[in-house]
Amino acid sequence: MSTTAPARQSTGVPARRDPVAVAARWLAAHGIQALQISLGVVVLAFGVLKFFPGASPAEPLVMRTVDALTLGLVNGQAAVTLTAVMETFIGLTLITGIFLRTGLVVLAGALAGMMSPLVLFFGDMFPDGTPTLEAQYVFKDIILAAAVMVIGAKALGARLEPSRD
Question: What are the alphabetically sorted keywords of the record (predicted)?
Answer without folding.
Answer: Membrane, Transmembrane, Transmembrane helix
